[in-house]
Amino acid sequence: MSAFKKALKLLFVSTPVGPLGTGLGGGVELSLYNIAKQLIRQGHQLQILAPQGSTWDDLPIAEISGNLQVIAQSQERNTPVNMPENPLLGNMWEYARQVQSEYDLIVNLAYDWLPFYLTPFFQTPIAHFVSMGSLSDALDFIIQQVAKQFPGTIGFYTPSQAATFPELTPPLYHLSSGIDLSLYEFCPQPKEQLVWLGRISPEKALEDAIATAQKTNLPLYILGKMQDEAYWEKIRQDYPNARAEYLGFLPTTEMQKVVRECKALLMTPRWVEAFGNVAIEALACGVPVISYARGGPAEIIRDGQTGFLVEPDSVQGLVDAVLSLDKINRYTCRQQAETEFSLEALGLRFEEWFLKILDTRG
Ligand code: UDP
């Protein structure tokens, strides 16, 4: 940190859908980890409130108990706000309320109604990092209210994600993402195999990747959190002959060993993916990304250079892209990750956003 910049005291409040390190929270877990790590490197002081059972020993985590929140993806748009008995989310924000005067800024990473609703009741300003596209009418409404009352406090991964929310008062911040590139090893020569990464859940449409593997007769490795067992069983029954192997949810170092040896990462989101951390993780290994042309991946992948963007929901489009992979230079993929998605750049973007919020508050 440069001498004239103030060290900020930051309180990060994590997602309440699962302990950090379990993968239940999806890509926002890795984002939180990377942002926190980098801001500490930049000289800021940081405390993270996270569910009990969080496993990251190298970050300052205060573990909070209580019942987990249900994930927004499994609910209808018009489902009213749900709160379990002894809610972890409520407990985290009660803790935040008590310690707020020790911090310059609170950073909310929960995709939940309560932290937005509580914002005007806190004396310490709150920055809200929204980790998914619009899924809930109640959440859309409260985000709208906060954007109006506290302009500039809402941050998104990408413009296409932000555009899924109705009429938000500007300025909106697009923070993108970043990774520790030193953890991902470049592999110039892949094996004849494909990979798919992510939570195993219907909005990720894993079945399209399996269909692609079957049609191209290439093996597909699947890595990620098993979120919907029944969905997974159904896919296995629908594609009995696909050469698809599920390897579980692996830590980054182990995961990248599998990813880097693959010809391509397939991304098949049925929804507007807010970003897609797995895309930049693959690029960092020199692995091209083939994705449906919607949401975050469409902003990341350089079509024809670092992967292919295909017509959404077209398995034939994915197959054609796999057959064109020889056109992609794997060095260009790694290079894109280095120039656009470094941890250093990510830390500076967040720092700038936080300083703007504090400036506005005076
Ligand atoms: N991931 C992992 N190990 C695995 C498979 C996936 O750590 O074996 C992580 C991956 O690094 C990424 C997250 O799971 O951060 C998936 O997030 P993504 O942004 O792709 O989608 P989301 O789950 O947020 O919708």
Automatic annotation (TrEMBL):
TM helices/strands, residue ranges: none
Domain Glycosyl transferase family as annotated: residue spans: 190-325
Gene3D superfamilies (UniProt xref): Glycogen Phosphorylase B (3.40.50.2000)
Keywords for the protein's UniProt record, in alphabetical order: Transferase
CDD domains in the cross-refs: GT4_AviGT4-like
A matching Pfam family: Glycos_transf_1
Entries under SUPFAM superfamilies matching the protein: UDP-Glycosyltransferase/glycogen phosphorylase
Any one GO MF annotation of this record: glycosyltransferase activity
Protein name: UDP-glucose--tetrahydrobiopterin glucosyltransferase
